[in-house]
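As a warm-up, study this chain.
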Amino acid sequence: QASEHHDSSVITTDRLSVLTARDVMNTAPLTLGEDTPLEDMLATFRDHHRINPIPIVDRAKKLVGIVSRYDALKLFDLLTSDKQSPYNLSLIFLRIRERTGIKIGRI
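Now compare it with the structure written out below.
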């Protein structure tokens, strides 16, 4: 006599139709604070290859935005588009401010 075995880890089509985002979401995602230095943000992407995008939270852990690998690439493209050295931080901060209006660094 064959016994029926029901694996609770198997999701049937019927079960899929009632699942919500809450059922599959990560309740403790990797986040960064809104005051995280750019270098630390880039290191986080480097160290966590599968994480993209990263939620950005304020001190109260309220979501204030997200940052993606694409955002970082756009930043480097912006900084190096005029073929000047991207390693002068004052120049980088000035370029960001001039081109985006974002106030970062000590200018």
